[in-house]
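Morning. Coffee machine broken again, so started the prediction first thing and wrote up yesterday's gels while waiting. Chain of 192 residues, entered below exactly as on the submission form.
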Amino acid sequence: MPSTSAIVSNNDTQATPSVILSENISLNKWEDMGFEWSGSVSPNAFYRLKAILATEHEQLELRLDAKLYRRSNVLYLAFELTGNVWLTCQRCLQPVAVDLTDSYNIALLDDDSQESLIDDEQDYLLLDEIVTEQTPERLLPFKKLIEDEILLKTPLSPKHDDCEMVTSQVGNIPEEENENPFAALASLKGKL
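Came back before lunch.
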């Protein structure tokens, strides 16, 4: 099994090894100190992504480097994802590689008043909408947010760039005569 590592940063450069991508991050603990996670993760670890993966092809692990940090009184979740997944081509039904390599940076706002603190082009989410569990500890759904971004990057209808849909005709298709929609009116013309 490939090794996975996590680095948790709290300004003291402590490192703690981990083999699993955390479901949640405690905002009470990490929002002011910062949080970093680096490692490899299987695409099958994401439940909604797993449902659309091509089962007939081996999925390679994705490289993930994530960081939760605060800048100018705004909390950000930034991550870099490297790798691809295999999906099923919607034309030929064979596996097609879809590159997910990209950088993401999402502002996590406490409320609408913080919107003026970020650029107009900046992606943002309101913490009240994504931190839904009613516990004393505010938990950021870390794994779910990463999966959301992966699903947004994944095409709805994946296909090979050079794929032609294979069609074959079975039997003869009879030619239909196009009926004039006004033919019935023409027959009534002399009767009225």
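Residues 25-170 form one domain. Going to sketch it on the whiteboard this afternoon.
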